[in-house]
Batch of 3 targets.
Target 1
Amino acid sequence: MAQYTENSASKPRILTGDTPTGRLHLGHYVGSLENRVQLQDQFDCYFIIANVHAFTTRAQQPTDIRQSVLDIAADYLAAGIDPGKSTIFVQSEIPAIAELTFFFSMLVPFSRLMRNPTIKDEIRDKNLGDSYSFGFLLYPIGQIADILAFRPALVPVGEDQLAHLELTRETARRFDQMYCGVDPQTPDEQYVRAGGLFPIIEPRLGRVRRLVGLGGPGPHGQLLKMSKSLNNAIYLSDDPDTIRKKVMSMYTDPNRKKATDPGTTENNPLWIFHETFNPDTVWVREAMEKYRAGAIGDVECKKKLVEVLVALIDPMRQRRLIYEKDPAQLLAVLREGTARANVVAEETLRLAKIALKQDYRPRTLL
């Protein structure tokens, strides 16, 4: 029985990333990106731009997908991801992921795949009906391969990705039990030490699990999450004037007709944003009390929020402009990162083929 060792790097490994559907917004920032920046010194970080997954719903828009790849890379760098510390790479340039996707697809029953609530939500939210492609259903399996190809200890994600991560955990257990001889009674944290190839990964949630958008409630009365498709987002690349316009038009308490009316702070995006982004907690606490008492108006509170968000976003926007003016620099970062990522993924594929008894010849990527 082959024995595998845990990541030999001096730091435990992280894998996470984004599907390139456009520029990143504040929901991405507090849900995961902020967390990634803070973890760079503690972990060996790999950040995937999952461009193949973008084809599951945008197959007719390859030029847009390519631009989105560059946009996300620029957002990563502008937010503080350091390519000297972390590896940023493009999914389609890692052939081991595609091979692992095929092998993992044999380990996930179709019925289990269709119980994935994220799949159901996307079919509903994107009005796909029954016209979605086979590749759309393959996407969760590809995401398993994205993660396990790098055998990470942690995966920083937003709350909406937890169902995908649970499927990844199930697949890692099944592979290790079936092909590496790991006892099913083994505790998750002991799988690699028990002879497994794949660790049973742990999610790491950001400080805000689900940031609401700028608009009002959805059809069932709940506040909708920030989303490009819902046109309710503030982007990390927005200029101060755009931020001001968006904030001044954001949904607050619909029952408050004038500044002297008592207002509700609960489930009010204005106050959710202040609690999330405003570092002056004393001002936030006192202003919320005034708002509930009808002693402060929406306009004053929105102007304060504009100041807070511009102070957060504008330094990122300025750094982003540097990369926008030099696409060759972005491509260089992606090529260097992809080369490093291929070394790790190819080693995982080699070990997986040994476990699968399908190791017939050595393979070297040029």
Target 2
Amino acid sequence: MNIGVFDSGLGGLTIFKALLQQLPQYNYVYLGDNARVPYGNRSAETIYQFTKQALEFLFKHDCLLIIIACNTSTATTLRRIQTELLPQHHPDKHVLGIIKPVVETVAASTARRVGVIATRATVESGSFIRELKKENPAVAVFQNAGPLLVPFIEEGELKGPVLQTVLKRYIDPLLRHGIDHLILGCTHYGLIKPAVQQAIGNKVKVMTEEEVVAQKLRSYLKKHPEVETKLGKTTQRRFFITDYSPRYQNLVRLFLGNHFQDHHRLELVKLT
């Protein structure tokens, strides 16, 4: 059986690459719903329906465990997925998010004043505030939505003066709160971490989720041998997308490097 990785588009490839680097022995299926990206400006119910469609697709492709590599989907749907969809329809399956791993890491650090940049839907869900307070009530948390960042990243605009102007618009209000850590609460944002660090300065530690998700998954599998022993270990990879262009294939190859090889191909699907 496979490990599934789902994202609304390109950003989840940062999580996927970390998994392939640290846990290469397993079989993986990646699904990017790039036809409907970004999710962050949509309603919670629409995000849930999109996420449910993606999960059902991955379940049909023999995924026993799925990582929702999308903060928007994790923030707005994970609780409902775990309490409604799985118990009622897929009691033998497992779905994990990506907010808790980075929250646990930050809460256990020296962080005292934490900033979060994320999509509008993630910010409005309050997930980062709720989870950080649960882990460490003494931490002060400040959020700001960055709705322009995903379109920039999807267009390959990963650096430059225009991006710096946009970043400062989102970062400066957080700096006024005296933050010492900044969580990039969207997997897309990991691709612009150097630009974010340039905009925010060296006194604030910038955290991305790919840095910790793979480590947390390894720990999870050690604690759950009933899941780990069922996973295939023949290093098979499949890549599904909901919209295709040569640009997307080039970006996948760019971000995954030698993890996307000549015998791999992007398979076009329609989610319903």
Target 3
Amino acid sequence: MTASRFKHILFDLGGTLMYACEDWDPIYDLADQALADTLATHNIRLDPKRFREQLHEYYQQREKDFQETSYHFVLHELLKELGQAEVTESVLRSALDAMYSVTQTNWQLENDANETLSQLISNGYKLGIFSNAGDDKDVQGLVSNFGIRPHFDFVLTSAASFYRKPHPRAFEIALAQWSINPNEAIMVGDSLDADILGAKQLGMKTIWITRRAQFTDEDMRRIKPDFSIRKLSELLPTLDLISLSRI
């Protein structure tokens, strides 16, 4: 079989390697309440709905500039506005941990993820993750709890890297972990905008995984992945095809 120059694969996480089991709205309600309850044990009063409103304001901004402000910072700034400027870092972290202890229960690893990742490693591929996420500790915990960390050279987040996909700097930070050029790596993800368009603009090859993808007809007209697959178990045969075609 013809050797491929593509031996480095960058994965998205949510919607690609893991999926949400239930609708998020009731989960968020429980999670925000857990955050508020934890703050209350330290005599800090916060309406959980106000925290979610603050997050939505932040979401609107990050979708414009693709720069990540961590949930930790958002919570700190909100409490400062409410006259609670002296809340310690440990209290903020404990409140966020309580929130994520709820949201993490809604994530499930795709049933073909472990086998696919193991096959890729056996075939000599180097794997990494870059996840758009507002909290690095949350993502690192999910990856560890799923037992997939040993497959990856690194697990990066926008919260720790500041930039969100599709910003080119997000991909550059990931590729720098391997000290390789964009044309030596393949991006695998479910988001046409964040994963596929972002990677293509930098010169990476792309594989769009569609089973959890949300997109519009306009997205399909505007963004053309190099390959499309439905599920992770189709990834290795697709990579073999890329090797044979010398794309």
